[in-house]
Amino acid sequence: MQRRSLRACQHLVLLSLCTTALLVGCKRDAEPLPGAATEPAAAVRQLARHLQDNDLVGYARAAVPPAQYAELETAWAQGHSRWPLTELPLDEKLPGLLATLSEKNAEQQLQRAFKAQLQGQAASVRQAAHSLELFGVQYITHQGDYSQAEREHYVQLVTALSAWAQAAPLSDPTLAKTNIATLTTAARATGLAGEAAFQAAGMTASLQQLAPFAAAVKQVLASYGLVLDDSISQMRTGLISQNGDNATVRVQYPLAGKDVDLQLVLVRRDKRWYPERTLRDVDALLAAARAIEQAKAQAVADEAALSEAPAQDAPGNADASAKP
Length: 324
Known about the structure:
This is Lipoprotein. With 324 residues, this protein is an alpha+beta fold. It has 14 helices and four strands. It starts with a helix and ends with a helix.
């Protein structure tokens, strides 16, 4: 159990860092970027506002066209999709993390793991954060399916988050006790303790039930000096270029005291703008889900055709019909 609790602590820290990467976007006390009033730039800000409000359903509906949202909900029910959770790094760990946090004695188990591994280990935590930065930058630079713009953005994120982790009081026992209680309470309230619960709830209900947990994660990060909602409210976006139904938006924000600058490609469908990478991933996901369902339907049809074949086609009946 101690090893499982340690893994839960590690997953918790990683989830917090990854959630930070998705939720932050801003620039302090600065003038709007050129093209801030354009539709593509406004679409990016709208996505961020949904996250600031912990409105995960609103975020999902704004990230894809309505027809795709409906198809994604069906694919979830069929067991082929967990979008938009798959946009989170370590998304496959989320059901298990919530299950661990929801256990009856989760607080005590996590407290023991914290005391054994982190309490009073500020220097070790700083060294671990520094090592993760080196590994993360090396991996992003040379591995993974990323565009050049994505690599540049993720390197900035890893560098900023490493600096934050090295300075944050992650080994403070008082904060740990409070934050473990906050997260376990929020996890139990989701009712999503495991993969089966996500499947049964469906996409929209799962996102609704996760919203308070997202708020709890932001509350915990704020206690360690990373106030995400303040950052999101100061977000800056601008238009770099637009060619027909394609646009490139510039996004700037400070993260843990460092300025991050990225470019985001958007595509217009049905008069609305959506992140191109999201649409590409969702198109592939839905194509795969359709193919699986078509194969299942064909298999059922083939089996039905065989069972409905004329009785005289059976070998035994053929022999009987040949007798005088």
